[in-house]
Design a protein that fits this description.
The chain is α+β, with helices and mostly antiparallel strands. It has helices spanning 45-59, 73-81; strands at residues 4-5, 19-20, 26-33, 38-44, 63-69, 87-91. The termini are far apart.
Length: 92
C-alpha cells in the first residue's frame, strides 16, 4: 500500500519528495534533532515519513539535518526482529 505525498517543508526542515513513498526498501536515516540527541531511524520511506509526522505531533521533534546512512546488517536484523516495524536508535 502506498501513500500519496506532496513535498512537505516543516519547521524541522524534513522534506519528502512528491509521488508515492516506497514501502518496500529498508533505509537507514540519520536525523540530527533540535534540543534532543540525534537518532538513526530504520524503516521504509513510508514508515520513516509516518514516524516523523507522529514524533512531530507527539514529541515536537524538529530535524536540523537528515541524510541516508549505511544500513548495517545488525540494523536490518533488529528491524526484522521488530516485525518489520521502524526502529529508532538513540545516538547519545
Amino acid at each position: 500500500m502506498s501513500k500519496e505525498c506532496i513535498t512537505v517543508l516543516l519547521i524541522g526542515q524534513k522534506s519528502f519528495k512528491m509521488g508515492d513513498l516506497d514501502n518496500t526498501k529498508v533505509l537507514c536515516e540519520y536525523w540530527a534533532l533540535k534540543n534532543t540527541p540525534d537518532v538513526k531511524v530504520i524503516g521504509t520511506e513510508l514508515q520513516c515519513y509516518d514516524l516523523f509526522t507522529k514524533m512531530l505531533k507527539e514529541e515536537g521533534w524538529q530535524i536540523r539535518l537528515d541524510y541516508q546512512d549505511e544500513l548495517l546488517p545488525e540494523y536490518l536484523e533488529a528491524y526484522q526482529d521488530n516485525n518489520k516495524k521502524p526502529i529508532i536508535i538513540n545516538l547519545k
